[in-house]
């Protein structure tokens, strides 16, 4: 994993910004395979392993196409399922722990831009963590700096801007806790 400063501003003129563009360029052929080629499950895991430069467990299932803008800061646990059209912006880091379910068209963005127009071309890197047994519903969006707690559910279409406590169900825009998992038993 390449070291970039997390949870802080990275100016467009910084050397790290140039490094990001270099890695993106290097990864373009791999990213294209995940978007456009009919890969087997084994081939998909091989491409993801090369893209992330990390071991990908044989239990991972990804229904293509899969969209990613960087690749090197993506870590995926065991027994993870990622459905079609997932989009991961992982420059700031995305960690997906074991037994996570990700529904179609989920967006996870670990990078943002400053509100100030004078610095808006720079980026803010903030990691996202999806903890064990979480389920991310279709068309949900998770922004940088957020942790989705263990066993939690993000409802379809939710926009998650704050940490989600463990054993919770969140829904809405912005997402709010609507249930606790214990209440469903």
From TrEMBL:
Record-linked SUPFAM superfamilies: Trimeric LpxA-like enzymes (SSF51161)
Top-level taxon of the source organism: Bacteria
Key words of the record: Acyltransferase, Repeat, Transferase
Alphabetized Gene3D superfamilies for the sequence: Hexapeptide repeat proteins
CDD domains linked: LbH_MAT_GAT
Segments traversing the membrane: none
Keyword rRNA-binding carried by entry: no
GO molecular function, one term: O-acyltransferase activity
InterPro entries: Hexapep (IPR001451), Hexapep_transf_CS (IPR018357), Hexapeptide_acetyltransf (IPR051159), Trimer_LpxA-like_sf (IPR011004)
Family affiliation: Belongs to the transferase hexapeptide repeat family.
Name assigned to this protein: Sugar O-acetyltransferase
Organism field: Neisseria animalis
């Amino acid at each position: 994993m390449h070291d970039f400063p997390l949870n802080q501003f990275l100016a467009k003129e910084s050397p790290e910004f140039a490094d990001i563009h270099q890695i993106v360029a290097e990864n373009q052929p791999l990213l294209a395979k995940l978007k456009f080629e009919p890969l087997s499950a084994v081939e998909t895991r091989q491409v993801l392993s090369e893209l992330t430069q990390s071991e990908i467990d044989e239990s991972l299932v990804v229904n293509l196409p899969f969209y990613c803008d960087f690749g090197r800061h993506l870590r995926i646990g065991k027994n993870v399922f990622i459905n079609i059209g997932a989009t991961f912006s992982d420059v700031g880091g995305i960690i997906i722990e074991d037994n996570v379910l990700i529904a179609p068209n989920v967006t996870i963005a670990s990078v943002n831009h400053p509100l100030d127009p004078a610095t808006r071309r720079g980026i803010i890197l903030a990691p996202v963590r999806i903890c064990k047994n979480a389920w991310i519903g279709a068309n949900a969006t998770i922004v940088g700096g957020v942790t989705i707690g263990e066993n939690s559910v993000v409802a379809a279409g939710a926009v998650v801007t704050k940490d989600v406590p463990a054993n919770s169900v969140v829904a809405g825009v912005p997402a709010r806790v609507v249930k606790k998992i214990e209440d469903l038993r």
